[in-house]
Amino acid sequence: MVAMDQYGNGQPVQYSLIETNSDWHMAKCMDHFKRANEHWHFVRIVIVDKDMREIDIILKKFPEARVLLCHFHVIKWLHETIRKS
């Protein structure tokens, strides 16, 4: 995870090595982040790739946050979709 301020400056706040990309593992990573960061409730925006399962988990774990799709990953998906058709 990377935290970013209002000026676009980011820094890593958590590294997670997980066995699989399952819902349970993702939820545990977010639970750990919340335990390790007492100000987690200030998270307002989370940017993700197009994994819808991940979005559902984030919305449950960070109910005050808006989930946005990463511009880069959306454009990449569009290019791949156009190329395949």
TrEMBL record:
Lineage, broadest ranks: Eukaryota, Sar, Stramenopiles, Oomycota, Peronosporomycetes
Ranges in coiled-coil conformation: none
Domain ZSWIM1/3 RNaseH-like: 1-68
Any Pfam family hit: ZSWIM1-3_RNaseH-like
Cross-referenced InterPro entries: Zinc_finger_SWIM, ZSWIM1-3_RNaseH-like
Protein known as: ZSWIM1/3 RNaseH-like domain-containing protein
Signal peptide (UniProt feature, chain positions): none
